[in-house]
Design goal:
The structure holds two protein chains of two kinds. Chain A is an alpha+beta fold. Chain A is built from twelve helices and twelve strands. Among the domains of chain A are: 43 residues; 107 residues, Enolase-like, domain 1, CATH 3.30.390. The chains are: A alpha+beta, B alpha+beta. The structure holds flavin-adenine dinucleotide (FAD), iron/sulfur cluster and FE2/S2 (inorganic) cluster (2 copies).
Chain lengths: 329, 166
């Protein structure tokens, strides 16, 4: 590991000031950053510890909830309000990593964790994300875990977070601070970006921009998170889905769908949402929505199976959620 | 070097650390507490599990310098003058290990797990309420790998202690 300075920020302003230098990085729980520093993939010269900033509360705000960026993944998953009103989020968090890791991992850090692409981790291999312009060994290499939507020839990595998929499906907003009282609020689905020609940039935040809170709107009536993985615990998603909607007189309202394990960001399934909105649930409709969303999906060899798998996951998730509805009626 | 104050197994420590030192290396290399083990050093195996402020964490993925003021419990802090902790005794009774390398991490992990159960904290297999069952313990212990494959006996040992407490 390369030497670095360590400091603990007292408040947002101090954090942002300390993180101004090009080589400075924020430290949350460190469960991703420290790992990458051990591999010398990340080589910051200064770490600004934001894990003890006073952003550790989960507060109700009118219809919604405001979550501090330093809230740990286990505290968030176990919070009574989150469990009751946002089970999609609680389930997504609990299906990620392990209790040991979730006890350290923070809400801010989880959003900004980096890809698990094995070539990104292997410094002997070509990777445009790690070293711009060096190439991408995943295209034409082992790419079972890689993207089927929105990828580029420069990078086919996926974002690995379960939590971020849930946040996008729930319509969350991310609040940031960036010095001199400036900061902004952006929708969770605008936080990450597609790789294009600049895959070394994961997200839209500027250097030194600090995530301070995440705001959830009023909870949807029907929510589901499903994760498909190679073993039943302690594994990243092969694919996953977060679904939230209301029903008005039996018709879909406010449908939001986010897909995990398929793209460089949690993938908002806008086309599928549009097809479902206002309609009555039916297996034919679910298939039509899934097909529309995946019309431009493409595999890279080992991950071709993700296309039919994702299709079935979308259809099965809506089937399960609306079957419950029929039984209740 | 950065000054650091820590309470480890009830005893106060004051020391100076290079910020690159993990909590695991601080315990093992600087303080001679070699009970916590280094398996992978990347957060994947759980051999380094210790309890910090009542919560289990992977000490290999945590910088020592970020733990100023924290209370740490390691395997060395489990037994008391009255003997082994209930979990330690149950591990022996159930033959819940072979080589023993993962055992300190397993016992620290399971010790914190019992508290999580008591607080009613959910896991992904929890339905409405936490129920003591094989599946629940397996899910909660999935962060502790055992290359000798002593899993069945580990689960039996933990379930026995959890049931006795319930
Ligand atoms: C073995 C293993 C298995 C895992 N399995 C899963 C899984 O199944 N599903 C899953 O979703 N995740 C999984 N994870 C990843 C884990 O969820 C992340 O490592 C964790 O959420 C990152 O949070 P952190 O607070 O530790 O982030 P850090 O490691 O502290 O930081 C991550 C990044 O975020 C930045 N950052 C941190 N806080 C802020 C802030 N407030 N504002 C701006 N930037 C910030 C840091 O600079 C860094 O770039 C796994 C990790 C491991 C090691
Ligand atoms: S897919 Fe992206 S992260 Fe993986 S090797 Fe290619 S450029 Fe690197
Ligand atoms: S040594 Fe820490 S998890 Fe393996
Ligand atoms: S007893 Fe040998 S690794 Fe678990």
């Amino acid at each position: 590991m390369k030497p670095f300075n360590y400091s603990r920020a007292a408040d947002d302003k101090a954090a942002v000031t300390s993180a101004r230098g090009q080589g400075a990085r924020y430290l949350g729980g460190g469960t991703n950053l420290i790992d990458l520093m051990k591999h010398e993939i990340e080589q910051p010269d200064a770490l600004v510890d934001v894990s003890r900033l006073p952003h550790e509360a989960i507060e109700e705000t009118g219809d919604g909830v405001r979550i501090g960026a330093a809230v740990t993944n286990s505290a968030l998953a176990g919070d009574p309000i989150i469990r009751e009103r946002y089970p999609l989020l609680s389930t997504a968090l609990l299906s990620g990593a392990t209790m040991q890791l979730r006890n350290r991992a923070t809400t801010g850090g989880n959003f900004l964790q980096r890809t698990r692409c094995q070539y990104f981790y292997d410094t002997q291999r070509a990777c445009n994300k790690r070293e711009p312009g060096s190439g991408c060994d995943a295209v034409g290499g082992l790419n079972r875990f890689h993207a089927i939507l929105g990828a580029s020839e420069q990078c086919i990595a996926v974002h690995p977070s379960d939590m971020a998929v849930a946040m996008v499906a729930l319509g969350a907003h991310v609040e940031t601070a960036l010095g001199e009282g400036s900061g902004r609020t952006l929708p969770a689905d605008a936080l990450h970006r597609l790789p294009g020609d600049t895959p070394h940039i994961d997200h839209q935040l500027r250097h030194g921009e600090l995530i301070t809170h995440v705001v959830l709107p009023k909870a949807a009536e029907h929510q589901l998170y499903r994760k498909v993985r190679d073993r039943s615990s302690y594994a990243f998603a092969v694919v996953s889905i977060g679904v939230a909607f209301d029903l008005l007189e039996g018709n879909f309202m406010n449908v939001r769908i986010a897909l995990g394990g398929v793209a460089h960001k949690p993938w908002r399934a806008a086309r599928a949402e549009e097809i479902l909105e206002g309609k009555a649930p039916s297996p034919e409709l679910f298939a039509k929505a899934a097909d529309a969303e995946l019309a431009e999906a493409r595999g890279y060899g080992h991950n071709d199976f993700k296309i039919p798998l994702m299709r079935r996951l979308i259809i099965a998730s809506f089937g399960e959620m609306t079957a419950k509805q029929e039984n209740a009626a | 070097m950065y000054p650091l104050q820590l309470t480890i197994n009830g005893k106060a420590h004051e020391t100076n650390v290079d910020p690159r030192v993990s909590l695991l290396d601080l315990l093992r290399e600087n303080l001679g507490l070699t009970g916590s083990k280094k398996g992978c050093d990347h957060g994947q195996c759980g051999a380094c599990t210790v309890i910090v402020n009542g919560r289990r964490i992977n000490s290999c993925l945590s910088l020592a310098v970020s733990h100023d003021g924290d209370e740490v419990t390691t395997i060395e802090g489990m037994a008391s003058d009255d003997g082994l902790s209930p979990l330690q005794a149950a591990f022996v009774r159930h033959d819940a290990f072979q080589c023993g390398y993962c055992t300190p991490g397993q016992i620290c992990s399971a010790t914190a797990l019992l508290e999580e159960l008591e607080r009613g904290e959910p896991s992904v297999v929890t339905k409405e309420r936490v129920e003591l069952a094989d599946e629940e313990i397996r899910e909660r212990m999935s962060g502790n790998l055992c290359r000798c494959g002593a899993y069945n006996n580990i689960i039996d040992a933990i379930l026995e202690v959890a049931e006795a407490r319930a």
